[in-house]
Amino acid sequence: MKTDLFEKRKQELSRLTDEELNRKFWELSEKIVDPLVKLAYENTTPSIERSVLLRMGFNSLEAKGFVDKCFERGLLGRGAGHVILKVAEELKRDYLAVGKEMAEGKHWEVAEKSFKGVKIG
Amino acid sequence: MSLDPTKKLDVDEILTGLADYRPKRKGWHWREAHPSEKKEGSYRYEEISKPLTQSLPLPAGRYFDNIDPQPQEIITAEIASGRFEDDLRRMRMAAWHGADHIMVIRTLGQSHFDGLLEGTPEGTGGVPITRKEIRASRKALDLIEEEVGRPINFHSYVSGIAGPEVAVLFAEEGVNGAHQDPQYNVLYRGINPIRSFVDAAVAKKLMASADILQIDGAHNANASSKIAWKVMPELLVQHAINSSFSVRAGMKKSLISLSTVPPMSSPSPSFRLNFVYALTIRELFKEFKFRAQMNTRYIEADLYDATRIHVLDAVLSRLTHADLQSTITPDEGRNVPWHINSIRGVQTAKHTLIALDGIKRYVGPKMDALKDEMRDLKIRAILYMEDILENGGYFEAVEKGFFVDSGYFPERNGDGIVRKKDGELGAGSIVPRERDYYAPVCHHYGYNALPAGVKKACDPIRGCTLDHPEKIQFLDELDENDNVEVRRAAVRESERKGLLKPEVEWKNDGIIQLDITIPDNPDIAEAAALEIANRLGLEEPTVISKTVLHPAEGTYVELKARVPFFVDRNTLRLPEKPVTLSEEEITRYVHENPLRVVAGTVGNDEHSVGIREILDIKHGGIEKFGIKYTYLGTSVPVEKMIDAAIETNSQAILCSMIITHNDVHIDEMKKIHQLCIEKGVRDRLLLIAGGTQIKNEIAIQSGMDAGFGRGTKGIDVASFIVKTLQGKKAGG
């Protein structure tokens, strides 16, 4: 911000009361985070998906193995846990056992078939 | 299992049964209200909390009936030596001194590890945070908090490229507080900016689910910028971005704590600058909590300078407001923190906050004088944010190097930290959630399309680990060489045999510190100090601090080195502790055989506090047992002491001597003994010396009947007099 513009705006802000200044501060802060919140709402990441698998009862090694493979196959956007549940449902087996096997590289053809339309990587 | 204050923490027992250990409680715990009108001893306080059941008071506590009032503020000790099993013992030490927020720094590089670490590898400058390490630490703290009678908050970091997973781990394992601030990832860890914010929302929501207190990371701008006060407008902006984002991710304001540091230090006119800043931030963020951290930016290797800075920082906390007073060990500038310095940090905070208890009733800011500067700061922060928005938003501002620039806004010096929106670690790992994106777990931030018929996200998996901890998998060790069992095996033998080595951070590290003043210039002094350590047979001597007393006249050197041998605790010869008579026995004897003594400090010695304590009834002195005394004052010539004893028909002379330069105390003792012989009264007078440096053996060698050193109470002296007189009587 150029100095003259700064000085001009500073003059304008000087007319605000303390309360108004505080309010202005928080309004701007909200404006800055609006797009950040939207990004977070609409996206996921390998770490987020591993955090889902941990909460489902997988250990960190299984979570990492699974999510790496899920990411490579372009299925992360469906939700890692979702992919496991879908495959477990197809195989009619317990999701924990199926997820563990998928982390080792098994059953991915089932996943890819279930989520058809997704580009196979 | 419970802890016995006379026994060491059994680390092996802590490590047993971890696979099934569950934390006693979850969530942050504030200190509780004082139960009895904030009265401790004979003092009424205004800002203290519930006392501990067991603790170690400040050094001067013994003059105040050993009271140990606890400030209302949570006190933090940062503890992380790289070996968590040794840190457990330091946590216990810190808790006994009044820390109830134990902050464990992570090992170097963990924030770039894409996933969770497991097992118990050794860390550098911190601890690798793993489930096993956290569980063991929480287990130890669950015991320690029972021992001291106050819940202890355990804290580490939800930062780096695996934030959401670490947040799950913390929520599951009863971690109570954590640093979380995506801006920290972006600016200081070089992690992709988008990844950092997307991860952060999920991590924050998870932290909120377990009532984990969040501490932000804005204060790092302070420590990174060239001239710290110039980043003040930016600090406000950084705090605001993280606070707003956190609330939007689901955190309660009452569990969002701003990490704020007084930016400046002496010799700048720091307090004035820090005061304006502290008041401004507290006004703008009044709905949030404040974690007052001490300044590290200007800490060199000088412990005293660090302590002076930290006292003033805590004064600022008391004059404004803090919910947590964090401490930095004063040796941060030169070591991995040592046990003693962690404790000193805690003592500094406790001392200052208690000393200033209630001061705001008398002293406060002159708002008329402060108003303009506070408004100026706010306006700069507001325009800073307008500048961010007009440049396209947060990511664009980071790309343009807005942050941690050394200019005072709107001035920019072009030396800010630049991070690319689409670059850095983890770039390209952000994936849009598809329309059917589904995460079958609770407390998940963001879009989540529950399948038809599913009411609660985790119903299809019959509950997730946050509600069903039995579903958590515990991984033990992954590395057979780098783990706690291997480290324990190396020290267990010496523990079993009772072999001791000095310790500053790790069992058997053997490190000692020597304080040496060499009457020469700094270069010579350093070389001389190293030579001395070598000749003493010490290993790996390293100079850790130097203070120039004069460029040619002298240099004070602090040196650390390793002691290469063990000391066997079983073969140590301890001086016998005299068994004192009971109070009743003494009182009865004195009642039947009236006793009188004369007392004073001898020679040129004006230190009278100690002798007054030995005498006065209100300090539990000998008067309490009915012993009459004549106090002759300070710097009394020995002739006068003897004459007074004869005149008052006393049975004993109590001479206090603090000054010991050139063994003047030994001369005085010999002199009084000799004069008593010359005057023919040595047989009927007990001669007793006392003082901090007095040893019984030396006193006796110098002609006294007894000598009493540091920590002596009236009863010790009274008991000695009575016992000796009883013995004389019995002997005829």
Secondary structure topology:
The complex is a heterodimer of chains A (121) and B (732).
Chain A: H1 3-14, H2 18-42, E1 43-44, H3 46-56, H4 60-72, H5 80-91, H6 95-103, H7 108-114
Helix pairs in contact in A: 3-4, 4-6, 5-6, 5-7
Chain B: H1 11-14, E1 39-40, E2 43-44, E3 48-49, E4 70-71, E5 74-78, H2 84-97, E6 101-103, H3 131-148, E7 153-157, H4 163-173, E8 177-179, H5 182-188, H6 193-209, E9 213-215, H7 219-224, H8 232-248, E10 256-260, H9 270-284, E11 289-292, H10 303-319, E12 324-325, H11 339-355, H12 367-390, H13 394-399, E13 431-432, H14 484-497, E14 499-500, E15 511-518, H15 522-535, E16 539-550, E17 554-562, E18 567-568, H16 583-592, E19 596-601, H17 609-615, E20 628-631, H18 638-647, E21 652-656, H19 664-678, E22 686-690, H20 696-701, E23 706-708, H21 714-730
Parallel strand pairs in B: 5-6, 5-12, 6-7, 7-8, 8-9, 9-10, 10-11, 11-12, 19-20, 19-21, 21-22, 22-23
Antiparallel strand pairs in B: 1-2, 3-4, 14-18, 15-17, 16-17
